[in-house]
Amino acid sequence: MKGRKPQEGMTLIVKTVSRILAPVMLLLSAYIVLHGHLTHGGGFQGGVLIACALVLLLLAFGVDYVEGKVSFSFGQVFRSLGATIILITALLGMAFGFWFFKNVGVYPYGFPGGIFSAGSLLLYNIGEMANVSASFLVAFYFLVKFRRRKR
Amino acid sequence: MVDVTFTLFNFLLVMLVVLALIVVELKDLLYAAIVAAFYSVIVAVLYFMLQAPDIALTQVVVGVGLQTAIIIITISKTRRMEEDSPGNPYLKAGIIMLSIILMVVFAFTFLYDFPAFGEPVARVGQYYVENVLKDVGAWNAVGAIVWDYRGYDTLGETLVLFTAVIIVLAVLRHER
Question: Complex ipTM, two decimals?
Answer without folding.
Answer: 0.81
